[in-house]
Structure formats: C-alpha cells, structure tokens
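Notes on consecutive records. When two proteins share a document, each keeps its own sequence and its own token line. Never mix them. Below: protein one.
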Amino acid sequence: MPACARYAAFLKLERLGLRRLSLSLATEYMSDRIGTRALRIGITLSITAGIAYVFCAAAWAMWHEQALDFLNGLFHGLDFRRILLAESEWGLWMFLYPLAVVSVAGFIVGAIHEVVKDLLDKIFR
C-alpha cells in the first residue's frame, strides 16, 4: 500500500475511533517516510561531497603549492608537506579511492542527520 494511501487509511480509522489500528498504521507510515527521506538526504549529501572532492582534486592538480598552503591554513597550521606522496605514486586509484570514501561518508552523515532530525521533531512537537 502506498504511503499516501496508508495515511488516508490512518485518518479514516482515527475518525472511526479505532485508535489502536490507526496508531500502528501511523507508525508504519512514518517509518517508511523517515527511511525514504534519510535515503534521499544521504544520496544528496553523498553527491555533493563527491562533487566538492572533484573540485578539490582539480585545484590540487592545477595549483599544487597554493592548495597545500590553503589546506595547511584550513587545519590550523598543520604541515601536510611531510606526508606528501611522490609524483609517481599519484594515479587514478589515488583519485577514485578518496572519492568513494568521501561519498560513502557523506551518505552516512546525511542519513543519520535526517533520522535524528525526524526523531527530534517528534520529541519537541
């Protein structure tokens, strides 16, 4: 049964005074919506983080020294020059692996954010 049909059935049962049935239907409806929204937000943040990483990698490739200075400033003066890889170690794998890590982390953070947001919305209503 689609989510909107379950919600309509919930309202009908509520009007008829069948509260126990309507609450179980409402719980099913809300859990379905939370899962769908968490998936959507997770995918959105994953794609956004992936796009940001592509731009960051392009900036690194074009302006290596300036990007390194920016990264050092971003992390409050940590010196990333000590952990640089040799030019020969850079390849497609060194682009795709971090891209996958950033995208998966973005998905997880986005999904958790949406679930926590929905739970807090329910608590503070």
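Protein two starts on the next line and is unrelated to protein one.
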Amino acid sequence: MTNSDKAISGPIDLKLAVGRLKPSATVVKYEASVDDRENIANLIELENVKRFSAAVEASRWRKDGAQLALSISVDITQSCVATGDPVEEVVEAESELKFLPADGRHKSSGSAKDYDHLPNFDVSMTGEIDADDPPEEFFGDSIDLGAVLLELFSISIDPFPRSPDAPEDAIARELTTPEEEDASPFAALKALKSSADE
C-alpha cells in the first residue's frame, strides 16, 4: 500500500494530520454516506455498496511517522462471474501499517546495533526499520486515510463472486483464461489427438 498519487483515492475524504498524533492511540471512525457509497461502487465497479464502516487506531511512530491499525466492515453486491446475478458479500479486513515522511528525514536514525549491548534492549525502542517490511511513505503533513481504506477494501473483495445457482461448468469457463486453457493437460491431449488425426 502506498499513500502516493498512484493509490486509489477520491470517494473517501479522510485525512490524518500526523503532527497532531500522540504516542497513545487516537481512534478515527468512518461511516460512508449515501453519496460516498455510490462513488465507491462506481470506482471499484460494484453493483452496490450498502454499508461501509471503518475504524483506525493511529499513534505516533518514531519522531515524525505514524502507525495505524485499520479495520473495515462493508456490505456489497457484485455480479456473479458466470451468470451476472447479484451476489451479496460482507467484506471484513484488518491491516497494520507504518508510515514515514517521503522527504527522507527518517533515514538519519540510529541502528539497533548501537544499542544491542544493553541488557534490556528491545528493537522496538529505536523504531528501527525492518528491511523485510518497510514502512509506507506519506507526502506533506497528513496521510490520506481514505486512499488507504479504499486500497484495503479493494484487495479484500472476492475477485470471482459466484451465485449459488451458477452451474459449475459455467464458472469454470469464466475462470479459465486462454493461456491457462492452452497450458492445461487437456489442451496437450487435444494437440496430440489433432497431430494423430493428421
């Protein structure tokens, strides 16, 4: 996830002023309005967004960053991939993210190596960056929470919604790409049979 201009943004106008955060968590709650739900549905190409609720616990991380614990609960309607019938889905997801300013001010912090000789040392005391899980970056003085929530939502939706009444063979046809079909063992057998017939 990113907080750059490449992230999904628009329908949820929700910003988090990082400079006002404290070490203790601040809770931000969001309930989408009718207009917001309609705009979210149009953006992500859903039939309907009936409810969109979110909660964010935000606290100061390092000197000028933030750490977020996000949770969303959303009721949506999608179209079945095989029949086009409406499919109801409840999307619930959680995520934890850390953010630092994009201007690189955080790069001057000391390494955990400078403190690991101390008997009660804990790497979390330094806020050292984990190379395997680097923080996101934000621009300016605030994090675009709307974009972050929308991205979490978009990657949590079932990409292949299926109606209970959809025939299995119809679903299989919809979920099989031409490349997958060519690479399947049945395609190989079909090719062999064609060669033999020639």
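For the record: The chain has a mean pLDDT of 77.
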